[in-house]
Amino acid sequence: FILRKWILGKSVSATSFRLTEKFILLLVFSAFITLCFGAIFFLPDSSKLLSGVFFRSSAVETNTRTGPDGSEPGSAGNDGREANPGTPKPGRDGPKSRSYRRYAWGSNELRPVSKQGHSSNLFGSIKGATIVDALDTLFIMEMSEEFNAATEWVEKNLDFNVNAEVSVFEVNIRFVGGLLSAYYLSGKEVFRQKAVELGEKLLPAFRTSTGIPWALLNLKSGVGRNWPWASGGSSILAEYGTLHLEFMHLSKLSGNQEFAQKVMNIRKVLNRLDKPQGLYPNYLNPNSGQWGQHHVSVGGLGDSFYEYLLKAWLMSDKTDEEGKKMYYDSLQAIETSLIRKSSGGLTYIAEWKGGLLEHKMGHLTCFAGGMIALGADGAPGDKTGHQMELAAEIARTCHESYARTALKLGPEAFRFDGGVEAIATRQNEKYFILRPEVIETYMYMWRFTHDPKYREWGWEAVQALERHCKVEGGYSGVRDVYSSNPSLDDVQQSFFLAETLKYLYLLFSEDDQLPFDHWVFNTEAHPLPVIRKEQTDRPNEVE
Ligand code: DMJ
């Protein structure tokens, strides 16, 4: 009775008990709280508890229309945010995955405050980004009813025959990657067919003099172009360099070697070019084959290029020696030219512009802690220990970028100059859009070290998400992580379901959940199986 009262959020009147009864009540209550926290961190099945927070306790289902105390939706405030949500309590809070289904089913993304669909122009008029991006998360979390509904939507509605311009990179990592993972996990043929169909539609993007693909492509006409803002009409390193994993699998699943040839050619072009101090500039003109502006970044515009070099080697069952060499050589150049330590002892990865360092690190750059940890084992020479230390230092810096804010959520970019450390100084860098990179690094660091601080840091992020991003209709980004009452951006990014929640789930799961020696995550957290030297083409045979 007491626990039920507590769970329902109602206070028990102390005056109705005598002193000894109050003492016993206090003891029971403290024991219960201790047990709950113990369960979160130590019980083997703690992952299930976490998934309950987000998705699926039975109490949750009935709570989506009314608040926990029976109040009307949105009654917590006019932005729909709960008045004082406090520590997340399993079983009390609404399943935000269902909000997308209720308010935005089939749209690319959800607007959780205004409770409607949101269409991003990254996907042209292709629909259903959130559905495809979330397929494998639903499967991994054993949400079979939701997975089946999503599968049915894909079968009946996912249509690539559109006269629209899309981002080749975004469509590849979210749609092709999401469909490939869904196929390998479930074995359902529809996902393989759709992935190959979409891959074929992306092939005209490679019709340039060098074979470096365009950033944007009209899926009907096959006409490509680059972002108008990109230096000298260039293609972007993180975009053309983040096709490799998916395209290798497309060749394997379709028997069409063109996919693999296209991405292997990108490497050839890069290997012919001189690299300033061994670094890869973010801009490359696809027709002249010359670098554009010499801007180097392990964050936006560069990030997942480095990630895919390492993962190409791992996904090839460690046979892709070229990918391996390119990864470790580029990491060496990054260490020499970009990685610095602040006077306060925080290691960070700066950006490089024509030889000058900008002492800024993006939230996106924080994925590098996980990447460096993942690659440490194969590092040449005696560098394994050094690279693990580097990864841990980057994880700590990124945690500091969260810890030094009012909301305990990290800014889009933080700086190390003018006396500040790990703090955003520009208003337009203070936002948080539910990005996964910091949690991704915690997840890798947990798997490799089992240091409990990574789960503690992950749990801090869960609490902050619940307090500041959760609204009646889902989870929203916030505009200023240094303000105690920030405005919301009213977008639930599709990568929140694909990546942020999946990495949190894995952080609190056992290591045999998607083990790293069998699965490699694409940059949108879609797991792809290692292609064994002697592997059959049948799904689920990834052992
Ligand atoms: C995701 O779409 C991918 O992780 C991409 O590589 C970079 N940014 C977003 C999430 O922040």
From TrEMBL:
Annotated Ca(2+) binding sites: 523
Region Disordered, residue ranges: 61-98
Subcellular compartments: Endomembrane system
Annotated transmembrane regions: 23-43
Positions annotated as active site in the UniProt record: 170, 303, 412, 437
EC number: 3.2.1.-
Keyword entries, A-Z: Calcium, Disulfide bond, Glycosidase, Hydrolase, Membrane, Metal-binding, Signal-anchor, Transmembrane, Transmembrane helix
Main enzyme class: hydrolase
GO terms of molecular function: calcium ion binding; mannosyl-oligosaccharide 1,2-alpha-mannosidase activity
Assigned GO CC terms: endoplasmic reticulum; extracellular exosome; Golgi membrane
Known catalytic reactions: N(4)-(alpha-D-Man-(1->2)-alpha-D-Man-(1->2)-alpha-D-Man-(1->3)-[alpha-D-Man-(1->2)-alpha-D-Man-(1->3)-[alpha-D-Man-(1->2)-alpha-D-Man-(1->6)]-alpha-D-Man-(1->6)]-beta-D-Man-(1->4)-beta-D-GlcNAc-(1->4)-beta-D-GlcNAc)-L-asparaginyl-[protein] (N-glucan mannose isomer 9A1,2,3B1,2,3) + 4 H2O = N(4)-(alpha-D-Man-(1->3)-[alpha-D-Man-(1->3)-[alpha-D-Man-(1->6)]-alpha-D-Man-(1->6)]-beta-D-Man-(1->4)-beta-D-GlcNAc-(1->4)-beta-D-GlcNAc)-L-asparaginyl-[protein] (N-glucan mannose isomer 5A1,2) + 4 beta-D-mannose; N(4)-(alpha-D-Man-(1->2)-alpha-D-Man-(1->2)-alpha-D-Man-(1->3)-[alpha-D-Man-(1->3)-[alpha-D-Man-(1->2)-alpha-D-Man-(1->6)]-alpha-D-Man-(1->6)]-beta-D-Man-(1->4)-beta-D-GlcNAc-(1->4)-beta-D-GlcNAc)-L-asparaginyl-[protein] (N-glucan mannose isomer 8A1,2,3B1,3) + 3 H2O = N(4)-(alpha-D-Man-(1->3)-[alpha-D-Man-(1->3)-[alpha-D-Man-(1->6)]-alpha-D-Man-(1->6)]-beta-D-Man-(1->4)-beta-D-GlcNAc-(1->4)-beta-D-GlcNAc)-L-asparaginyl-[protein] (N-glucan mannose isomer 5A1,2) + 3 beta-D-mannose
A GO BP annotation: carbohydrate metabolic process
Disulfide bonds, paired cysteine numbers: 366-398
Pfam families reported in the protein's UniProt record: Glyco_hydro_47 (PF01532)
Bilayer disposition of the protein: Single-pass type II membrane protein
Cofactor(s), names only, from the UniProt record: Ca(2+)
Annotated metabolic or biological route of this protein: Protein modification; protein glycosylation
InterPro entries: 6hp_glycosidase-like_sf, Glyco_hydro_47, Glycosyl_Hydrolase_47, Seven-hairpin_glycosidases
Function: Involved in the maturation of Asn-linked oligosaccharides. Progressively trim alpha-1,2-linked mannose residues from Man(9)GlcNAc(2) to produce Man(5)GlcNAc(2).
Family the UniProt entry places it in: Belongs to the glycosyl hydrolase 47 family.
Name of the protein in question: alpha-1,2-Mannosidase
